[in-house]
């Protein structure tokens, strides 16, 4: 072998080895919430399978704080090489609408990898209220203007905007009571100090008889509660909203890298073990192209911008 050929051969082998090393680099999936919460649990279910399909370690890294701003900003500023991803939820769409310090435009700020799941939020009331259906609650609220309350995780939270949408659609005059978390709002409903909230984790409390789930917000019924109607089935049109989990990459991530990640995610979402675990969490796997995630973000942005405008909400 001549010297030139030997150098060419060594260079080719070195390139292959370098590619293998890069392929084996860990993928960091940043979750902008604390460990143990609903989004974090869903992320770990996905990422465990995603690592197997990619043939790379996939590590969940929790970066809570700032209403998801801290974790989201970390991904925006990361190198766009496919090794740092954001797994988040509908808060990604809502945050720029309710926090004046957040300057990103949700539909264009990051490269969509794909939507992973959708899930409903339950319409939850205290079990002692004299209502058993959503229609009965609406009628009860209309007969008692200003006397019933709904709780949320604070101004600008999903439950706050959901409550304002509910008021606009029903004409009910409900008083907003903000708390520091959705779990606190749900606890107060169970205790009878607040009448209504919107929460995806109410099933266990409903089993105790302390709260009643009147409907779910999604376009489909919650797989854990097949007898509970959707809001549309219960007679409330226009309230159909799906929450979701989705994955984004930093803007500028090469299209082939995004395509590889999207294909891996779609493969994961077809696995029966993952679908079964999702059903236990009240989620439905939702695979597809990256554009489906951006379509969802645009829908959320348009809907909640309208809710904020019509309710004349101000955020500082």
UniProtKB/TrEMBL annotation:
Signal peptide from the UniProt entry: 1-23
One Pfam assignment: TctC
Family annotation (SUPFAM superfamilies): Periplasmic binding protein-like II
InterPro entries named among the record's database cross-references: BUG, Bug_dom1
Alphabetical UniProt keywords: Signal
Superkingdom, natural source: Bacteria
Keyword Signal part of the UniProt annotation: yes
Presence of keyword Signal: yes
Assigned protein family: Belongs to the UPF0065 (bug) family.
UniProt protein name: Tripartite tricarboxylate transporter substrate binding protein
Organismal lineage: Bacteria, Pseudomonadati, Pseudomonadota, Betaproteobacteria, Burkholderiales
């Amino acid at each position: 072998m001549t010297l030139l050929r030997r150098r060419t051969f060594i260079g080719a082998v070195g390139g292959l080895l370098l590619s293998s090393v890069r392929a084996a680099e860990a993928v960091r999936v940043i979750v902008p919430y604390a460990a143990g919460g609903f989004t974090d649990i869903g992320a770990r279910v996905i990422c465990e399978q995603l690592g197997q399909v990619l043939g790379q370690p996939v590590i969940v890294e929790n970066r809570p704080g700032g209403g998801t701003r801290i974790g989201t900003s970390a991904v925006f500023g990361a190198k766009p090489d496919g090794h740092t991803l954001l797994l988040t939820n509908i808060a990604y769409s809502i945050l720029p609408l309710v926090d004046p310090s957040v300057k990103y435009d949700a539909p264009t700020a990051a490269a969509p990898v794909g939507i992973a799941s959708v899930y409903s939020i339950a319409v939850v009331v205290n079990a002692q209220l004299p209502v058993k259906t959503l229609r009965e609650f609406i009628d009860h609220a209309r007969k008692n203007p200003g006397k019933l309350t709904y709780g949320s995780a604070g101004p600008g939270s999903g439950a706050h905007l959901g409550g304002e949408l509910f008021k606009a659609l029903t004409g009910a005059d409900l008083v907003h009571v903000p708390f520091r978390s959705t779990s606190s709002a749900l606890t107060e409903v169970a205790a009878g100090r607040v009448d209504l909230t919107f929460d995806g984790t109410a099933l266990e409390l409903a089993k105790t008889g302390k709260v009643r789930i009147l409907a779910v917000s999604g376009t489909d019924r919650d797989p854990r509660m097949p007898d509970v109607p959707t809001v549309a089935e219960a007679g409330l049109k226009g309230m159909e909203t799906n929450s979701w989990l989705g994955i984004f990459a930093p803007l500028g991530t090469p299209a082939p890298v995004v395509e590889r990640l999207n294909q891996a995610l779609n493969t994961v979402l077809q696995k029966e073990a993952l679908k079964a675990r999702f059903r236990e969490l009240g989620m439905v796997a939702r695979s597809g192209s990256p554009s489906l995630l951006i379509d969802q973000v645009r829908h959320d942005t348009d809907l909640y911008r309208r809710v904020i405008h019509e309710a004349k909400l101000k955020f500082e």
